[in-house]
Queue: 2 jobs
Job 1
Amino acid sequence: MKVKLEKSVNIFNKRARFEYEILDEYEAGIVLTGTEIKSLRSSKASITESFCQFINDELYVINMMIDEYKLGTFYNHKTKRERKLLLHHYELQKLKKKLKDVGNTIIPLKLYINNHGKAKLLISLARGKKLFDKREAIKDRENKVNIQRLLKKS
């Protein structure tokens, strides 16, 4: 039984830009086990329901789901567990300071493997959007589609 590994793994959080207003972005490394990285390389992960939280002055991603590796034995990992994020000390301090503002949160935007083969998580400091902001985003998206449709016809 062969498991197909993809060259480029890009897993997006599509709801993040709709639900949140992005304030700042950071690239963080992730501490993973062997079976987790193997499962991630075959694109068996999801970050749609995940968020980041400080635990003992360290940043962790919570609710990130990485499926169990098919060929893993009893050494397999838990699908949902807290995974430590690797950032510089000054970035952690900056994020912690900005989190104290009301309504700010840290959410993952993209999970990928970089050119050096390391798993990276693009996280962002974000603020939740109000209902009318979401309606505006839907209207803008529909307008873009209509403009593209008209340009194709002419």
Note: The two ends are 51 Å apart (CA to CA).
Job 2
Amino acid sequence: MPAAPLASVLFVCVHNAGRSQMAAGFLHHLAGDRIEVRSAGSTPGDQVNPAAVQAMQEVGIDIADAKPKILTTEAVQASDYVITMGCGDACPIFPGKKYLDWALEDPAGKGVEAVRPIRDEIKTRIEALIAEIDAKQKT
């Protein structure tokens, strides 16, 4: 029987089509099943940003099948970490959750050249988040 995830993380941005999808892709790729991953948006788009899909494919992560999802209260309640992507989303606040706001440039409407530095910044933050979650398990 597999072990329960160490933590559950919800990534939130307005359209759930760029930043939050890239973050979810990196976390799932780097942490596997050790950390439960969710993403959502307050006003989900119709599809994931093609430039974000291409930028992630360049680093070996496929998010082409991801679909933007609506942010729900249940998703927030079920998550240990709620990470908003610098978009000022009104996210329900519940005690006992860790809320982080990552101020990241919005990749909407940008080409892959402009999305690459956003992708790389997200990867750096995901690596730090995994380290934080792992460290909490050792205390």
Note: The two ends are 24 Å apart (CA to CA).
